[in-house]
Write a structure and sequence with these properties.
195 residues; mainly alpha; Endonuclease III, domain 1; 0% strand; globular
């Protein structure tokens, strides 16, 4: 199993082999292109020298924000996202012994339990947790009972809704088209009514 999210072999390799990197990529996936978000963990690792929960949680907050600000920036909102990554890392360290994969492996949890665990993390709301659960099930080898149902529409087979469905440049294009269509539909729904 190898993820193909960023188009960069080193960044994708880190996501494939380091569950915390994958969680951080998902956390960063807001208000920046998906490839930028999921390439973020590699930038952090290269600049900090490590990518484990204890190191990131214990890093000096100002220095960590500076890591995010270096060019190319990890995220367009370096200060707030650096703080979120540290909060996530602290939660993984304190609640899961530093093992991000324990979220979906400890105690052989079903899909609903993994969704509950994800939603308890800092920065993971309902939608982000469902997308990440779908990513685990579709591409990361997670086979817990009921994961597709727990992931909702993101768990549908053959869909192109989110990062969970990106396996190639072609699928990335399909996901982008879906997102564009959703924004257009949202614009129609939220458009002011003519009098």
């Amino acid at each position: 199993m190898t993820l193909h999210i960023t188009g960069d072999a080193a960044a994708d390799g880190l996501l494939t082999n380091n569950p915390l990197a994958l969680l951080i990529g998902m956390l960063l996936d807001q208000q920046v292109p998906m490839e930028t978000a999921f390439a973020g963990p590699l930038k952090i690792q290269q600049r900090v020298g490590a990518l484990d929960a204890a190191t990131l949680a214990g890093y000096d907050p100002e220095a960590f924000a500076a890591v995010f600000s270096q060019t190319p920036a990890v995220h367009r909102f370096p200060g707030s996202m650096a703080a979120r990554v540290q909060a996530l890392s602290a939660a993984i360290q304190q609640e899961w012994g530093g093992d991000a994969a324990a979220l979906w492996t400890r105690g052989d949890p079903d899909g609903r339990e993994v969704l509950r665990r994800l939603k308890a993390l800092p920065g993971f709301g309902e939608q982000k947790a469902k997308i990440f659960l779908a990513l685990l099930g579709k591409q990361y080898g997670y086979t817990g009972a009921g994961w597709r149902e727990a992931a909702g529409a993101y768990g549908e087979e053959g869909s192109f809704r989110s990062v969970a469905d990106i396996t190639s440049a072609e699928s990335l294009t399909k996901v982008r088209e879906h997102k564009r269509a959703m924004k257009v539909d949202a614009g129609r729904v939220n458009a002011p009514k003519e009098r």
